Amino acid sequence: MWSSPEIEALIARLARLPGFGPRSARRAALALLQEPETRLKPLVEAMQNAARHSHTCPQCGNLDTQMPCIICTDPARDQSIICVVETVGDLWALERAGVHKGLYQVLGGTLSALSGFGPDDLNIRGMMERIAAGHVHEVVLALGTTVDGATTAHWLQSQLVEAGVVISRLGQGVPMGGALEVMDDGTLAAALTARRILEP
Amino acid sequence: MQLLQLTLTDFRNYKRCVWNPTSPFVILHGENGSGKTNLLEALSLLAPGRGLHGASSAHFCREGAHNWGISASLKKGEHVFRLATGTAPSNTKRRVFLVEGEPVRSQSDVASLYACVWLVPRMDRLLSDNAAHRRRFLDRLVVALFPDHAQQLAAHERSVMSRNRILATQPSQKTWLSSVEDSISRHAVAITDARLTFLERMKNSAITTPGFPEIDLQLDCLLAQELQRHSALKVEDWLRDNLQKTRTDDQQRGGTRYGAHRADFSLNDTTHGIRGALASSGQQKIMLLSLLLAHAHCVQEGWGDAPFLLLDEPLVHLDEPHRQALMTNILERKMPSFLTGTDAGLFAPLKSSADFVHVKNGFLHPEAP
Ligand SMILES: Nc1ncnc2c1ncn2[C@@H]1O[C@H](COP(=O)(O)OP(=O)(O)OP(=O)(O)O)[C@@H](O)[C@H]1O
Ligand SMILES: [Mg+2]
Ligand SMILES: [Zn+2]
Fold it and tell me: B78, B86, B158, B301: which has the fewest Cβ within 10 Å?
């Protein structure tokens, strides 16, 4: 080994991040260390801030530094339509596409008997309370087209039938086995615009 | 489809091997344990799935190495592309596919680019043994014609496993069970429909294969019977209903009784009136070869490209006339094929057209034509 344990520890931490491998982690560490004033220190500061202030929104499950999150508290957003997504990454992807003007519900996963993620683990309480309060007109199920995503959509639909809300699903364009997070903005926007109302 | 180049890295007994076949017909010969079957396995692994041994990825890596890779340069029509599979750089336990060096999003993307079918000695009694092996064989043929079938199968399998797990661990989750059963029903009907369409295509494209018997392939499956009488939506409802009704039973048995995983097929020799299930090893092999040759023709009709035929020890169990007929058919129909055997002499009829490769201890020695 030709670098100190501290630097190796930094590289090892970076390498565990999604999208990083050992090689890119090494490159990133080098870039940070070479320019401590303009790269490393501002990053440390940004990370510390994020670590100190970010929380999971108690209403929708989004990640943000304010509670409830910036989306839940935005008066300009349509409170009567909730878009259900699997992960915060999916929420961000939809926001990037900029087509959904309502609220979100982040499930935190999809039903998966094989990995032990069941109905009780789905984060839906915030949405159910909003529906019970009579604020919601439509729920859009924006789940990936994986097997577990489809099963979760079916399960949610059964839960919502009684609630008297319109339930819709992303339209065509989502490839089978596809996750929202990796789709391009245009495809996402088209899928959301072409959403289909599900018959009870 | 044509193989222009194959590169193996730390795969089975191959440390590093770069090979440029000179003909669409390849004879791999060499002594026991030299690596003939391993090479066929490598070609089988370029398609999604566990390859011709059904082995787990842990076995692919050469003993002592940590990463393995198979990379092929292929020609389809005028289109030349590179397809590769192996361990992911970031996680050696995960297997990935690359097309032109880029990771693929879904396995159907691979299945629509590359198809192969195989016959290995282990399948000598396929028609009379284990139904699961038989079904997997059939589905491989279907995938070569309908690449999406692979994804449907994977989704169906996952849903059935999920149902079994929920029944075993939390049977009171009725809504969850219904959702999973809905998934099983949708995928099972799609799968059965693909299998039936496949059978029909095979019937319509049937050609006589000189020296081989006429064969009859039948699907033996409750769902298929339903689908032939009712609409797909009706059959989905029927299946959902049955799955719900059999929950208690299935919970006790620890399995799922209804679904596409209960299908079987029968293959019979109509020229001689022999039932596959009762046939001898040689007779079974002849029927299966006849089926593979017909299938290759059918795929070629559909896609303009025949799948690779991987035949491990194809001459064993065959009598002299059938050996000759097999080689003649492969040649005349120009089917890209990879054949193995310990004795190169037996392949003499292919001497002037095939690429004879001597396999020796994990190395390939092409012979000058
Ligand atoms: N993961 C591995 N690492 C190293 N060697 C392996 C690995 N897996 C298999 N082998 C070896 O590869 C060798 C060749 O096997 P293969 O089945 O290809 O032989 P073959 O040429 O088909 O022989 P036969 O004529 O007996 O069928 C075997 O000796 C086996 O021990
Ligand atoms: Mg062998
Ligand atoms: Zn929120």
Answer: B78
